[in-house]
Amino acid sequence: MRIIIFGATGAVGQGALEACLRDKDVTDVLVVGRTPTGRAHPKLHELRHEDFTDFTAVQDRLTGYDACFYCLGTSAIGMSEADYRVVSHEFPLAAARALLAVSPGLAFAYISGVGTDSTGKSRMMWARVKGETENALLELSPRAHMFRPAFVLPLPGTKAKARVHVLAYRVLSPLYPVLRRIAPRYVTTSVQLGQAMIQTARSGGRHRVLTPADINEAASAATP
């Protein structure tokens, strides 16, 4: 299986990349991003690209892949809805359209989060935008799957880019073992999230919108 990852330098994306590099069924991984991952591996190839609204110039490099794991995202804190929509709506849709144009059967996994609202009624701006993005992606392809994790523990040594995420990881990471015991259905690691995306791309999965419990179930079924 050949996989493309967007957002591989983020906290979730680093776990997805690690899961792909470990999995024996994954033969090639192409990371598309603005900054290098800093990793070297026989499976790993990197494509630097700046304009995430237009992939015309690199579309020939995006052919022949089986799945895309779209992990690129940002915190909505301090952002206007217009700016947040560019990153969380326009970027993923541009990527999905470019990839599906050259590989119509490609599986597309999109990371959103618990609280995402597909009805458009939420008072939370990010939830409405993410929900609109999910709906659009689900319409684009029958092999699009939406992942809504709750608490995600990143790989050891992961450096989050957003200050809010840095603070969250600093506070919550030590609590992971406790959270795992008292609320196992709502916590996962970034590698397990990657394994769940691999398993869904491989088998199709039972759900097109995956809850934290669905994600953990798919991860446990993966065979890296």
- Taking all Cα atoms into account, the compactness measure Rg is 16 Å
CATH topology annotation = Rossmann fold
Q: Strand pairing plus helix content: what structural class?
A: alpha/beta
In the CATH scheme, the class would be Alpha Beta
Query: Percent helix among the residues?
Result: 40-55%
What report would you give on this structure?
This is Epimerase. The mean pLDDT is 89. The longest helix is centred in the middle third of the chain and has 22 residues, at 81-102. The chain has helices spanning 11-22, 81-102, 125-140, 163-172, 176-182, 190-203, 212-221, and strands spanning 2-6, 28-33, 44-48, 67-70, 107-111, 144-147, 151-153, 187-189, 209-210. The chain contains 7 helices and 9 strands. Strands 3-2-1-4-5-6-9 form a 7-stranded parallel beta sheet, sandwiched between helices. It starts with a strand and ends with a helix. It has one domain: NAD(P)-binding Rossmann-like Domain (Rossmann fold), CATH 3.40.50. It has 224 residues and is of the alpha/beta class. Helix 1 (11-22) links the parallel strand 1 (2-6) and strand 2.
